[in-house]
């Protein structure tokens, strides 16, 4: 799906990007997709929420390991966008209230 994402960038004010923390073999591919999104000129003004999902699984990587592997501090420092991160479990609902609060706040700023 990544190759067609750019056709949906128009009038985008918010971007949610989900990372599967239980699948470290896909982390590099996720990072490449995230870099492509962050470098898209049409998304330069968008607020970005990175969701680190599946924190409830036993093979879950720590947030520190993930941040290090995708060089998150460097991404945040170099990105034009305002980037927020949240650790969630979509299955158990952990962290979803933070996601809703971010969506409400972002909508209020862009509305």
TrEMBL record:
This is ADP-ribosylation factor-like protein 16. GTP binds at residues 53-56. SUPFAM superfamilies: P-loop containing nucleoside triphosphate hydrolases. The keyword GTP-binding applies. Pfam families: Arf. One of its GO terms (molecular function) is GTPase activity. Coiled coil: none annotated. Keywords: GTP-binding, Nucleotide-binding.
């Amino acid at each position: 799906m990544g190759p067609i994402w750019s056709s949906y960038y128009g009038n985008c004010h918010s971007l949610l990007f989900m990372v599967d923390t239980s699948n470290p073999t896909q982390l590099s591919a996720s990072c490449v997709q995230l870099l492509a999104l962050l470098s898209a000129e049409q998304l330069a003004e968008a607020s970005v929420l990175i969701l680190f999902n599946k924190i409830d699984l036993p093979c879950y990587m720590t947030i520190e390991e993930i941040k290090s592997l995708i060089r998150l501090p460097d991404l945040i420092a170099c990105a034009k966008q305002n980037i927020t991160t949240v650790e969630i479990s979509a299955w158990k609902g952990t962290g979803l209230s933070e996601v809703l609060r971010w969506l409400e706040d972002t909508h209020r700023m862009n509305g």
